[in-house]
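User: Can you recover a sequence for this backbone? Please restate the input before giving your answer.

Assistant: Of course. Working from this structure:
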């Protein structure tokens, strides 16, 4: 299980790193009122290497999530007994949270991924050789917001890439960071922090 988790974490990110460098025109862009942004040359290989794999993962997640929700609704009277037959930590509450995450993932991941690939396909650039693509690799290009305001689709795409990760983090925490075990852990951690601060305060300012 450990090496499986390591492979899941390292292999996809390494492949994305290699593909990103192959279609990286220069170091990065600086967009006004946004910050740093990757300088991806939107050619065919960039679309296939960077935008299509998330679509495939989202489609697989959509199918698996759909089957999970369908089976839950079709056999909801039996699922508690099925869970009790297996010696695992999965209970009805956790199972329902997983179903909720699957439903949210179905609603968000695939539509956003399709939007990204359609939007970037409209701006498809010609494919150049390695030398031509990387000849000014040390360049840091600055882009004014006025240029993006003239292209509403580009500004929407940039904001979408910025806020989807944040939204996903809040959704994940809402499902798995607010249940009973997590809340008790938060309370225990908070009590330890307040006790440590109280001890430091008394040592610094308290009277003997």
């Amino acid at each position: 299980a450990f090496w499986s988790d390591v492979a899941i974490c390292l292999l996809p990110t390494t492949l994305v790193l290699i593909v990103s460098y192959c279609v990286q025109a220069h170091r990065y862009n600086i967009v006004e009122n946004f910050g740093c942004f990757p300088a991806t040359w939107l050619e065919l290989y960039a679309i296939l290497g960077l935008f299509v794999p998330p679509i495939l993962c989202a489609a697989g997640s959509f199918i698996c999530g759909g089957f999970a929700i369908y089976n839950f609704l079709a056999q909801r009277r039996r699922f508690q007994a099925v869970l009790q037959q297996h010696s695992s930590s999965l209970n009805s509450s956790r199972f329902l949270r997983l179903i909720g995450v699957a439903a949210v993932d179905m609603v968000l991941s695939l539509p956003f991924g399709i939007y990204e690939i359609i939007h970037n396909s409209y701006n498809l650039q010609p494919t150049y050789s390695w030398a031509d693509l990387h000849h000014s690799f040390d360049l840091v290009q600055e882009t004014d917001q006025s240029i993006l305001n003239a292209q509403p689709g580009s500004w929407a795409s940039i904001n979408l890439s910025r806020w989807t990760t944040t939204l996903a983090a809040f959704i994940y925490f809402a499902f798995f960071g607010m249940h009973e075990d997590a809340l008790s852990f938060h309370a225990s951690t908070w009590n330890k922090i307040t006790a440590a601060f109280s001890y430091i305060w008394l040592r610094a300012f308290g009277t003997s």
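That completes the design. Strands lie at 28-31, 35-37, 140-143.
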